[in-house]
Structure formats: C-alpha cells, structure tokens
Design a protein that fits this description.
Elements (H helix, E strand, L loop, with lengths): L9 E3 L7 E7 L2 E8 L3 E6 L10 H8 L3 E6 L21 H14 L6 E6 L1 H12 L4 E7 L6 E2 L6 E2 L5 H14 L4 H17 L1 H12 L4 H10 L3 E6 L7 H10 L4 E5 L5 H4 L1 H17 L1
Parallel strand pairs: 4-5, 4-6, 6-7, 7-10, 10-11
Antiparallel strand pairs: 1-2, 2-3, 3-5, 8-9
Helix pairs in contact: 1-10, 2-3, 3-7, 5-6
Length: 289
C-alpha cells in the first residue's frame, strides 16, 4: 500500500551545473539520490559498485532532453543501507530491489507510471521492477543490462552462473582499457567502488554474486506479455555482459526495439551525449507506440 504522505526531501549542496543531490526516506532509512531537469519524470538506476555521481554527465545529458531524472543510490551503494539478507523476510534478491524501487517512487512522490532506465546491474533491477510493480513502470530502457542468464564459451551456451569470477574481472579490465575511459572518470569509478566496498564489504560481495548470476528471463517474458514498451541499448564492444546474455534477454523480451551504439560496457559514462540522445529517442519512440 502506498503512503498518503511523504517526507519532504532534504536538499544537499551540489554544483550548479550538475544534478542536485537530495535525500529521501525509504522504509525509514535515508537514500541519497540525484535529480536533474524538468518535465516528464524518468528514473535512472546505476550499475554495480557505482553511484549516481559516477553518471552525473549521463544524467545531465538525459535531463537536457526535456525530462526530469531521478537517480537513487541503490541499496548497498552510495550511502544507502543494504537490503536485509535473503531469508530475513524481505529478501535481497531482484524482487527485494524491485519492492525497494516502489518505495523510492513513493518517497519522492512519483505516483503515476514512469519510464525506468537501468544500466548493467541497474538494468536487471529495472526489469525486475517492471515485473513486480505492474503499471507503475510505463517503459523500460535496458542499457547493457544483466539478466539474460546465458554465457557462451567456445560456442557452447551455458548458464551465466557458470562463468568464472576471473572472466568477469578480466572483462571489466578489458572494457576499461578498450573503452578509453578518461582518467578523471576512472578515478570517480574507482573511488565510488572502494567507498562502497569499505562501507559494507559483505553486502557488496552478495550483490556482486546476484549480478553475475542474474537470470531474469522469466520476468522478461511476463513483462513482454503485458506489452511494456522496451528498448535494449547495447554497445558493440561490451565484453563484460556476454553477447549470449544479451541475445538471450532479447529473445525473452519477445520483440523489443534494439539500438546498438559504439563503445564498451560503460560507454554512457564516457559519452554522456550519445546516451542522452539514445535514451531520448527510445522514450520518444515508445511513447508513440
């Protein structure tokens, strides 16, 4: 049940040229979030180990297209408390994250249906939210999202949970090098990841295991059956989320619109302008369907 009254968000200092940083209360706990722009509300969910601050350029570029972006720090990252462990009643799986997203929408007063954009792990959370929250999610834009559940070493398709941890780490390193990530951006990513790990190392490990074993094909099928307009944004050079996972997720979603871009897994951090244009095009296209 949605609460009839919401606490007034606290506004924290932020650079005038970037997104404002605010704090809302979700299940009685503080949640930092970034907000930028004006117009139709859009929710953006960040990737594993990062925070909305890492995506400030991408958030600003999307906001410049004429929408108001809300980007919360997901549980376990950026100062937001982790979800309770599995077995504690509420759960910390993707269903738990989806319920948390519903609480965040309540906390910032977004009662109507909103588009949700998610990158990487945040894409998995966005998909789970569309499945769990029904008509509160009007559109989906999944950017290099986890959830396809497949891995294809040497041409043999296997479950994604069988992919060795070292392959994930190696892919992340390759993505950073080949993507030409600017030093300033790399420092921001590294700093956010370290702060999150130091603050709650056990939680970060559990969330990492959830992300790398994500199989949301059943949820994707239900979302497709409901006719939620969905766009998959995919960068051609992604070595982090395997191509087989992307293809598997695409099939599970039925016939989503696919928009391919240049770059690696975190292309939107290095090229926020391309991200803003691509998401704006996806949202505009979906709104016409």
């Amino acid at each position: 049940m949605r609460s009839a009254a919401f606490p007034r968000p606290t506004i924290l200092p932020a650079a005038e040229s970037g997104p404002q940083v605010r704090v809302a209360s979700v299940t009685g706990r503080p949640v930092p979030y970034s907000v930028a722009g004006s117009g139709r509300p859009v929710v953006f969910l960040h990737g594993f180990g990062l925070t909305p601050r890492t995506y400030s350029g991408a958030i600003g570029a999307l906001a410049a297209s004429g929408v108001r972006v809300y980007a919360p720090a997901l549980p376990g990252f950026g100062g937001t408390d982790p979800l309770p462990p599995q077995g504690s009643g509420s759960g910390s799986g993707f269903d738990g994250y989806a319920r948390w997203v519903g609480g965040f929408l309540d906390a910032v007063g977004l009662d109507g249906a909103v588009p949700v954009v998610g990158h990487s792990f945040g894409g998995g959370v966005a998909l789970a939210s569309a499945h769990a929250l029904g008509d509160r999610v009007s559109q989906l834009v999944l950017v290099n999202a986890v959830g396809g559940g497949a891995w294809s070493p040497a041409g043999t398709v296997r479950e994604i949970r069988q992919r060795p941890l070292w392959r994930w780490a190696a892919s992340a390193a390759v993505d950073t090098i080949l993507g030409g990530t600017p030093v300033s951006t790399l420092a921001s990513i590294t700093g956010d990841a370290l702060r999150n790990t130091v603050r709650a190392p056990g939680s970060v490990w559990r969330i990492g295991d959830l992300a790398r074993s994500a199989d949301l094909r059943a949820e994707a099928g239900h979302v497709a059956d409901r006719g939620v307009p969905t766009t998959l944004l995919w960068s051609r050079g992604d070595t982090f989320v395997p191509q087989a996972s992307f293809e598997s997720l695409r099939r599970a979603l039925g016939d989503p619109h696919v928009h391919r871009v240049a770059g690696c897994h975190s292309w939107l951090i290095g090229d926020p302008g391309a991200f803003g244009r691509a998401v704006h095009a996806a949202l505009t296209r979906s709104a016409r369907l």
